Amino acid sequence: MHKDIAPWQVLDSKITYEDQWIRLRSDTCQTMNGHIVTPYHVIELPAWVNIVALTSDNKIVLAREYRHGAGQVLSGLPGGVIESFDTDPLVAIQRELQEETGYSSNAIFPIGQGYANPANQNNIIYAFLAVDVVQTHSQKLDEAEHIEIVLQEFLEFSRQVWSGELPAQALHLATLGFAEHFIMRSNLPQLKGLREMLLQ
């Protein structure tokens, strides 16, 4: 039997740092047993979106770029933050896919969502799968972005990621897992070949 767990009571809260990218909230909290936790820092961030984008011949569209936190050039899924002008996560991922890679699709499916790190971040990640993507535009990158578009066989990318051969962002791993779960249960004709191979 599960014990009742109550949310912490917030006794005080203040923004201790804020710029255009991040907001840090510092709380004083009281736990259900009366223990005072202070300061407890929460990073307030916009919601994120990312996508497994597949061409008609089952290649995944990847964005290869330098990631400063890791200090490495990595290949990952296209994605980004939901901007204030995006009406919903689907609009955001359509925009991000097109801006980062120039690819578009008329068949994009929501496949899952979850918190990025609920211990001390408030944002949610929305995961999508696109099929039959085609390059329809030129990239539209920010000044600090330098992205090489990489096309790789989906199953080979999956093997490299799950084996640890290819370092991957944890949230991209989650989206890849959502995508494989979706593919294995989908009746979409575009995914039939991949479905059969994943089920072997």
Describe this structure in words.
This protein has 4 helices and 12 strands, in the order E-E-E-E-E-E-E-H-E-E-E-E-E-H-H-H. The chain is 23% helix and 38% strand. The mean pLDDT is 95. Helix 3 packs across helix 4. A hairpin with a 5-residue loop joins strand 2 (23-30) and strand 3 (36-44). A 4-stranded mixed beta sheet has the order 7-4-10-9, sandwiched between helices. Strands 1-2-3 form a 3-stranded antiparallel beta sheet, with no helix packed on it. The chain starts with 8 loop residues before the first strand and ends with a helix.
What is the radius of gyration? 19 Å
Strand content: 35-45%
Portion in helices:
10-25%
Biggest sheet, open or closed, and with what strands and sense? 4 strands, mixed
Whole-number mean pLDDT: 95
The structural class is: alpha+beta
**What ranges have pLDDT less than 50 throughout 5 or more consecutive residues?**
none
Largest beta sheet: strand ordering: 7-4-10-9
Q: Please state the overall shape, judged from the principal axes of the Cα atoms.
A: globular
Number of helices: 4
N to C succession of SSEs? EEEEEEEHEEEEEHHH
- Strand segment count: 12
Kindly report how far apart the N and C termini lie. Answer: 38 Å
